[in-house]
Amino acid sequence: MSLLQMLKSHFLSHLIICYVFLASGLIVNLLQFCTLPLWVVNKQLARKFNCRLAYCISSQMVAALEWWSGTECTLYTDPKSHLLYGNENAIVVLNHNFEIDFLCGWTFCERFGVLGSSKVLAKKELAYIPIIGWMWYFMEIVFCKRKWEEDRKTVTQSLQNLRDYPENFWFLLYCEGTRFTPKKHQISMQVAESKGLPKLKYHLLPRTKGFWVTVQNLRGTVAAVYDSTLNFRNNEMPTLLGILNGKKYHADLYVRRIPLESIPEDEAECAAWLHKLYQEKDSFQEHYMQTGCFPSPTVNLPRQPWTLINWIFWTCLLLYPLGLLLAQLISSGSVLTILVSVALCTAASLAVRWMIGHTEIDRGSSYGNKDAPLEKN
Q: In sequence order, what are the residues at sequence separation of 6 or more whose Cβ sits closer than 8 angstroms to the Cβ of residue 184?
């Protein structure tokens, strides 16, 4: 193991990263809270401010992926479609197989300048998680309880609110509703068989109602659907803890641009269209497993320096007062004060580990582990 790799995997390095993320995140959350009066005076200006503030948080995680771990991402796409990315609103349909697939989605957004304004359909529980959840609240993220009878009205209203959004945005959507596991896949394919649908090898059955409602409410606002299929080389299963330890991965992302007007407006026809899309996604994954690449040209997408600059800014800003505090603690010689400080640092580290735990596959949602919920879509 090289000296640099040892440094990246050292507990003190993790502690500093956790401290900077938590402290800067809470500062940004406070600044977002301070924009509440501005929403009354100038809603569009408040939205723009919150896009920049949200970037301060989400870009730190992208920087950890791109710069700390050195993970590379190869984009497979049509060169003509590539010219439109970042210059239009879009719905991004992602597969949900990996613990860091959301982070790769954010990296995709960052490469085309829409990270700060990116949206997602997220479970309601995430809104209560400090920093990320609170950031999402001010970013008008669409939250759902995964109970269609309750969600339909709130999701529709949240989507309608995005129709006059002042920035180009991408709406990231995981149509499978939950992360892929063997157990969930088995149950999902039982439902597919009962409905007479073709079985999928690498995906769960997509939830068609949420997709249809999203498309219907964003017609006229969104120009296209970006069908995105993610995989990692060498059959690796990357984790956030791996990223934190500086482990390098190589992601391959296949993106197809599908004009929104080509998607049927009728709910049943839209559902059939989505099922066909996932059958195609399954064939792309099969092609990748057999050949190690996706069936499309590659586009060179160099990482941008802005995530690193933001990360360095917050690190310098927050490490200076921390250094002064540590110097005072050492000079004071108070054992109690030092013990309290160590306890606070440990608590901060555990807090980040708790948030990371929400991304782990083996601790994921039980949604999709029962037959009944699946059969409702």
A: 178, 204, 368, 369
For residue 142 the two structure tokens come to 């669409």
Decide if 240 contacts 359 (C-beta within 8 A).
Answer: yes
* E strand or H helix at 207: none
Task: Give the DSSP per-residue string, 245-269.
Answer: TT---EEEEEEEEEEGGGS-SSHHH
CA 9 to chain centre: 24
Query: Tokens standing for 276?
Result: 């066909």
Q: What is the pTM of this model?
A: 0.89
Q: Which residues, 6+ apart, have CB-to-CB distance to 332 below 8 Å?
A: none
* Contacts by 156-164, CB closer than 8 A, 24 or more apart: 156/213, 156/217, 159/213, 159/214, 159/217, 159/218, 160/217, 162/119, 162/218, 162/221, 163/217, 163/218, 163/220, 163/221, 164/44
**For 237-246, what is each residue's pLDDT tens digit?**
999 889 989 9
What is the structure's pLDDT at 347? 73
Which residue type is seen at 377? N
- For 28, the 3-state DSSP assignment is helix
